[in-house]
Amino acid sequence: MPQTWLVTGCSSGFGELFVRQLCELGDNVIATGRNAKTKLAHLKSTGAMIVDLDVSSPASEIEAKISEVWDLYPGGIDVVVNNAGYILSGAIEELVPQELEDIMRTNFHGPMNITRSLLPRLRAKGSGTLLYISSQAGWHADPGASGYCASKFALEGAVECLSHELAIFAPGIKVLIVEPGYFRTRAFGNINHVPPRVADYAAFNAAVRDVEAGIVGNEPGDATKGVSIMINLVKGTGVAEGKEIPLRVPLGTDGWSRIKAKCENMIKICDDWEQVAKSTDIVQQ
């Protein structure tokens, strides 16, 4: 039986690939994005429903949009792919509050507002999947990437809490975070750069941009393969067949390596500082 998917950020990259692959599988797809009439025109031939949705909109507007699209297909929405987002590049000292608020509005509050709008409906159904496209940046931080990393760290923390809540209130709803490394999409060609504000960072910013430019076209991840595996994870097919799917799944050798190294380093710190950590406990008389 076909599933109905709502996918955000479909103009290119993972979002576009989700639409194309899901439509080829015969599923129902609601493809969303900003200025959808023009930016998603290339997806009309897929058979997907094209819907205008800016995830950075106020919660009330997102709620109204979810109410509008919920009944586009019989049975409502089965899977939500929270994919929309962007990369912000800039040193912390050069960032201004508005820039941080903007990226959090898109990368964090957008998925959270969509989640809150859908949860009552999914709980009433007793089933559904909430898929969040995070990043290795939800674990591993790079100089100049604080805005992006902060949004992904926040998203993963909130979604982990959500997974525990739903285990109590709606065990039929699945929650999944996918953490890709560098995949060959347009993401690194569309980075938002903070304007230069502190002269001391000029050389640093130039070096960061050189690194970013060097990534474009050289990303090790195949986006088509990545999206295929994400669909498998939701459906329990292919590489996911017969497996218990964890909350977090890293994708790509580079992302997997960074996440694994971060975990190993944290375990070492816990081992090295175990006695100091435990020495702060109240001693029972």
UniProtKB/TrEMBL annotation:
It holds the Pfam family adh_short. Keywords: Oxidoreductase. The keyword Translocase does not apply. One of its GO terms (molecular function) is oxidoreductase activity. It comes from the Eukaryota. Coiled coil: none annotated. Belongs to the short-chain dehydrogenases/reductases (SDR) family. This is Uncharacterized protein. It comes from Xylaria multiplex.
